[in-house]
Amino acid sequence: MRIIGRAADMAEAARAFRAAGEGVALVPTMGALHDGHLSLVALASRGGRRVVVSVFVNPTQFGPGEDFERYPRDPARDAALLEKAGADVLFMPDAGEVYPPGFASWVQLPSMENVLCGRYRPGHFRGVATVCCILFGMVGPDAAVFGRKDAQQLAIIKRMVSDLRLGVGIIEAPIVREADGLAMSSRNAYLTPSQRAEAPRIFGGLSAAATLAGHGSPGAPELAGAFRAGLEGARELSVQYVELVDPSTLEPMDALDRDGLLAVAVLAGRTRLIDNLILRPGAGAVEV
Ligand code: AMP
User: Fold this and answer.
1) Edge to edge, what strands does the sheet with 143-147 contain?
2) 267 Cα: distance to centroid of ligand 1 (angstroms)
3) 102-132 pLDDT, tens per residue?
4) Distance of alpha carbon 265 from the chain centroid
5) Which member of 34, 37, 124, 215 is catalytic?
6) Ligand 1 centre from 153 Cα, in Å?
């Protein structure tokens, strides 16, 4: 595995892959890698594509007072994990090269970025869409892999790629969970033991909502109620939002009359945990 820091070297490596007739898949991450990230690497390499994993803690997607400074960083461990997972390139660009002096362009999707998490993290998805666009420009991948764990991010990237004709195939990766159901996240490292002990209730609440969906076409309030009931009595968890939305447009749905994304954010102290399930009426949770 090559470790590349400079954008010019990354462009050259990608050019060499393409010249050899090889496809290139990009896996954008912020590092502090876990098995969820590694599942994306495995998906990226399908079909014999070369796999470029970027590790970049993107300053523009953190709001004031968010965890940019304390976000976990462990490049040596990330490199070892990626080497073992079979990645071809670990790309770690400098912030100064991603956002050079005079940088002035932003990608915005107003109808999709100010809902769900965007309501609580103003500017976050503008930062995400913009950095993904820059990384696509730097690497020139045929495909890029994103996890369904970040369902709003995934919907936004798919819309951006389609609207701007970026020509990057988006591969979706299922959510990887701990044995007790907690969705893996780099931010789980912030949890105290007692918060960690309660955190699996998030998946418990989602599963209760999925059971309801399995029996028919419940309304959004019933689904939200089932989720909240699953968290009842939790001492350290508070629900920030629970919403049923269209998985592609993120528009609110009144009832589960077709596939719907039940998306939640829960606070454990200062730590925000997000999770979701795609629900199908009469079927429950589905992998689409
Ligand atoms: P991050 O480093 O948290 O920005 O995540 C990088 C990529 O990994 C994103 O596409 C995430 O959706 C994906 N990802 C993070 N956690 C998981 C998980 N538990 N299961 C699947 N994908 C994940």
Assistant:
1) 2-4, 89-91, 50-55, 24-29, 143-147, 169-173
2) 18
3) 999 999 999 999 999 999 999 999 999 999 9
4) 13
5) 37
6) 10
Q: Please, which residues have CB within 8 angstroms of residue 209's CB and are 6 or more apart in sequence?
A: 223, 224, 226, 227, 230, 262, 277, 279
* Known catalytic membership, residue 124: no
150 lines ligand 1 (CB under 6 A): yes
151-163 vs 124-139: helix crossing angle, rounded to 10: 50
Q: Which two tokens stand for residue 32?
A: 């502090």
Q: Give the CA distances from residue 179 to residues 112, 174, 176, 182, 183, in Å, rounded to whole numbers and listed in that order.
A: 32, 15, 10, 7, 9
Q: Choose one of 34, 40, 170, 272 to mutate for the ligand 1 pocket test, by most ligand atoms within 8 angstroms of C-beta.
A: 40
Q: If you measure from the C-alpha of residue 231 to the centroid of ligand 1, how many angstroms do you get, rounded to a whole number?
A: 24
State how far the Cα of 169 lies from the Cα of 144, in Å rounded to an integer: 6
The residue to which tokens 């309304």 are assigned: 219
Q: What are phi and psi of 222, to 5 degrees?
A: -65, -40
Taking the CA of residue 185 as reference, the ligand 1 atom at the shortest distance is 16
Kindly report the average pLDDT of the chain as a whole number. Answer: 98
List the structure tokens of 147.
């996890």
This prediction has a pTM of 0.98
